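User: structure tokens for this one?
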Amino acid sequence: MSLFSSLSKQLGYGNSWDPNTDIPDLSGKVALVTGGNGKSAGIGAAIVEGLATRGAKVYMGARSEERANAAIEKIEDAHPDVKEKGLVVWLPLDLTEPKDVVKSAEDFIGKEKRLDIIVNNAARLAADFELTKHGIELSVAINHFGHFVLVQHLMPVLKATAAHPDSDTRIVIMSSAAYHMCPELPGLKTLDQLNAPYPSYQTAKSFYGQIVRYAYSKLLNELYKVELQRRLSAEKSSIIVMSVTPGMVATEGSFVTFPWYLKPLFRVLAMPVTAGSTSALFAATSPEVRRDMEKYKAAYLTTDGSVTKAGTQATDAGLAEDLWGLSEEVVGEIMDGKM
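Assistant:
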């Protein structure tokens, strides 16, 4: 048993699946992972590394070329064959601006004819209430709208890949168990409801208020997953959509988020980054997912890749449909220059 598996079991997260040994050969596959270019190693970088070292060509979608190249260089230094084969490539991607996201998707399609795996990993963590120039709350803009636009504009190549014989196309959404913290939503039919669903949502400056904003964006990810899978299944598509929670992970971004009085506890309880990438790597690569695809469609996976039942609000088909319709409406107005 590897050190990784041993540690995972000690923490109560692990089953026998180990990304160090159990990811199959991915040669010939193309993947896109958003995020991954933190100042220090993060979950996204670990996902990119896990996919590339098994032979996949992986695009790292990130805003900063400098930071993306630094992350890529770190992976290449550890794995010379990845560098030799050019398996990790930076894709300029700014999730805050839908028009820029469309440009990034077009750039990708101009380079690749297939896309087997997309991992929606990038996220704004717990932070103060802030609006984009389009009037969208920033966490909602990045964590939901940016990925909504990206996947929509990459859907033609995802579907084309899924149509190939023996294809195995997957969309993995980085969620969080934090979504359970969300109070009952009043609805998702207007931009006001989407931006500020709870009383004091805009004004709360406390750590708890920040966490609720993050948790809400993850609830939106869950609802988006439900409706996306429903639409794909209605089309008889073989694409599998899953959400995963990484658990409490010792990343730079997470540590900065916590107030000083919780940082010591965080250091003790947080898992290493490699453990935090396990659920996403399992969802993206495990042959078990394809063997039992009905089980994994729209599934919510825990830290070790096990399927668990999502909360009632996170699986509400009506809310999911309303979110989709509102998202299309808002994106359309942004593209038309009306917002």
